[in-house]
Structure of Nitrate reductase:
Amino acid sequence: MADTVARAQEPVVDDGPHDLVEAAGMPVGSGVIKPGYDPRLTNEDLAPLRTQSWGSYNIFAFWMSDVHSVGGYVTAGSLFALGLSSWQVLVSLVVGITIVYFFCNLVAKPSQITGVPYPVINRVAFGVLGANVPAIIRGGIAVAWYGIQTYLASAALDVVVLKLFPGLAPYADVDQWGFLGLPLLGWCSYALLWVLQAAVFWTGMETIRRFIDFCGPAVYVVMIVLAGYLIYKAGWGEIDLNLGEVKYTGFDAVPIMLGAIALVVSYFSGPMLNFGDFSRYGKSFGAVKRGNLLGLPVNFLAFSILVVVTSSLTIPIFGELITDPVQTVAKIDSTFAIVLGALTFTIATIGINIVANFISPAFDFSNVSPQRISWRMGGMIAAVGSVLITPWNLYNNPDVIHYTLEVLGAAIGPLFGVLIADYYLVRKQVVSVDDMFTMDAAGKYFYKKGYNPPAIIATAVGAVVAVVPVLWTHGPGMHTTAQYSWFIGMALGFVVHLGLTRRTAA
């Protein structure tokens, strides 16, 4: 089995098929490029890792950074306002986040074992050049969301600035000091956060690891303090886990619960797809799974309960339901509290932005032309692109964001289906690391001029079918079907790729 995944160090998998991992002389080095690796497919950022040192806490912190954002807060709170009882929402959350946990483990394993990022592991299914298809799709989605998250973080920062310097209010008025739809203060805040994020990213993965290790817990501290303050003001008796009237009972609640489950899975679909970019650093697959368990089911449920407690208490205190934590903090009669809270949520949003929307396109764009685009260069391409799309206009226009991001998002499901079907059923978890880095026609993953038709076709079929309900929203049953576009695309990508591959091999 000379062409199977190899490691020069001790086996890094503490469960699963150990016999698939053999010591075959892979050089010891971070981003080690073996002799014979084609430069058109290789750089130090994409090459297999020399060492994998992330433990369970690092993965746990990654998910905390991903969940503990303004977007995560609003999403969790919205589930409790669907007209379901609190126990129905909690059941939906448990089922949804358990599905995410299961799928993340599936995506994590091939990259953790081989030590390569998401776009490189896709070379096995799509071909050494065809892997640019999923890379560009995922990279494009990440760029758009990177810009939007940076804008949301800058809006939180504006709250702090205006609280400390109320005289700057005219510069926050887009009609007085606006350019391309953003006021001057907004431009300054956006530019500051843009530079800060780029600086953190530029220092490398080790600094990013330390940053996300801090971000997730920091938000918990502020959230708990905020909840404690609201409980002190309103009293324990005002806590209500139902953020609205319970409209659905019995079997009538089932479709709403299924929609809530789909919403949870869809919310995590982006980082779930390219989770291999992070699991590759895991020191063992067991460590990654433990981190996923703590960071997803355990952390997400705890965070969601904290969110609904905090949101419910805004009604008796402020006279209205507030699901945005920045707005909640802004209403507190304390400059220190407002500054601390807004800055914390700003930092948290920076954390999710870096892990979910900066690192992904960095690897994705580097994969397109490894010798011209390094990991850092790929990240900066994403950063510059995030400004050019003027994300504040994208975010403030529901139709544009719907047709741009959801159309791209329809391809996430098929990409996931192809990757999982190929690695677990077609390859049976046996892959050749060396063949992922060769343009030799005899290489296992060269296929037809570097492209594997079954994977391309499966992605296209799944994306086209999944995007129909997204675009045809007024069609019969389309609005409901659109909730499940990820599942539809994933299933089609899985089945079509598996069917075409087996038919070709027959």
Notes: The chain has two domains: 54-394, 397-432+452-506. The domain at 54-394 is CATH 1.10.4160.10 (Hydantoin permease). The CA atoms of residues 112 and 279 lie 5 Å apart.
